[in-house]
Amino acid sequence: MFAAVDLGSNSFRLHIGSHEGTAIRVIRSARDPIRLAAGLDQDGNLTPEAMQRAIACLARFKEILASYAIDSVRVVATNTIRIAKNAADFLPAAEAAIGLPIEVISGEEEGRLIYLGVSNSLAIPAERRLVIDIGGGSTEIILGRGHEIVKVESFGMGTVKHSSHYFPQGVITEEGFDAAVLAVRSLLEDATPAYQPEFWRNAYGSSGTVRAISDALYKNGFGDAEVTLEKLQALRAYCIQRGQIDDLNLQGIKPERVAMVIGGLAILIGLFQELNIQVLQPIEAGLRMGVMWDLYLRSTKRDRREQAVLDVLNLFRADLNRAKLVADMSRSLFAQLKPASDYLSNYVYWSALLHEVGMVVSHTGYHKHGSYLVENADIPGFTTREQKLMSRLVLSQKGNLRKLGDAFADADFAKAVLALRLAVSFMHSRVELDYMDFSLKMKSKIELELKPDWVSLHPTVAFWLRKEIECWREIGIDFVVRARV
């Protein structure tokens, strides 16, 4: 059983689902219209009131999650928390309320998860498709074929800002609609050539916004549930004729959602015009379903992060053989150090694979360049927090250890750094590890026991070990090397 919690710009949502056959069946869902994006003040900070609403909601979600036997759960945060200047102040309290880490995902990662949910729900293997998701704070556009993503982009336009900016005080005018649509088209114009109909067969709208607009069209006499530009323009004309959001009588749309639907309508019209969409089919699946599918795939050892790391290696032209050698040694050394949990094991392996990507910039200080690239590159499947963790490990592979600050308060992180540094040193010395030749421990100090003739067989190891001993002693950790009796 899997659970996905989506901290969206408009609503916080929860799905609990079970994998059955070829599908994930949702067995419990919950939604709370937090309006987080509307809770940003003029300086870009979340207001205390908005944060309190969010924290109260997360505490309720925690109670729901506790009543199910869930194998794995992920909490993902999207645009508003991505851009909120005081997000770092909000997140610790939010994580305490729900009792889980919160992953702030990039817009591109959000798009990939959305597509993962859509593609698995459609189960049409080779279909070339366009997927659009209009959220409260951002809009994602994804081009794909079957389960494969061809291109994904995120645009900083959402229903909350569009509604408040172009329809102030709820006043709906033709001029306001024209300006709202023009803003969308202007933002999209550089990207549109890649998403024209020649590259896809069917278009889908995955967000609650698209489904709400589809309901409004069908339930208010504008036609069936299929979305076309003609129907959208008819709905637009009706809204302008009414002139005020509070005066709209849209069957099937909750009154508190009407303002968001108007902003979404302007965005959708702009998308239709710029991308030359003829028909858009609403679909129920989206981000939360994608998160649950991602959890399911990880549980079956089909973790898409594995391929993503290899793609980055290829992109930055790193030496795959050296990378795999260091990665295998790092993981083995880390296991020998007996960490308290295996949480860091994959990150040690992936960081080791990526340890030389900085050489694409310069061979001097490549660990610093690599650290920057790993933290800031678009690596599918990884959250911002995960990339920061791997960035620190890549940075730690050589040079002084003072640059890592108080990170060594985490004993397992210290073991991860030691494993990676030794693996890099052994790779340089062309060592083929035989774990019968040595033993490695790290508690209050580092203890490395070697077979008496081991250093003589690998002469340059002595040079690297002397440097390591100095570096660890600089931060107050003794590193003892002795011959095995």
From TrEMBL:
- Asked if the keyword Lipid metabolism belongs to this entry, the reply reads no
Q: Which SUPFAM superfamilies match?
A: Actin-like ATPase domain, HD-domain/PDEase-like
Kindly give the Pfam families that the UniProt entry links to this protein: Ppx-GppA, Ppx-GppA_III
Where does the record place the Ppx/GppA phosphatase C-terminal domain?
305-462
Question: Which Gene3D superfamilies does this UniProt record tie to the protein?
Answer: 3.30.420.40, Exopolyphosphatase. Domain 2 (3.30.420.150), Hypothetical protein af1432 (1.10.3210.10)
Q: Which InterPro entries match?
A: ATPase_NBD (IPR043129), GppA/Ppx_hydrolase (IPR050273), Ppx_GppA_C (IPR048950), Ppx_GppA_N (IPR003695), PyroPPase_GppA_Ppx (IPR030673)
Which keywords, in A-to-Z order, does the entry hold?
Answer: Hydrolase
Give the Ppx/GppA phosphatase N-terminal domain ranges: 19-297
- At the top level, the lineage of the source is Bacteria
Q: Which PANTHER family match?
A: EXOPOLYPHOSPHATASE, RETROGRADE REGULATION PROTEIN 2
Name of the protein in its database record: Exopolyphosphatase
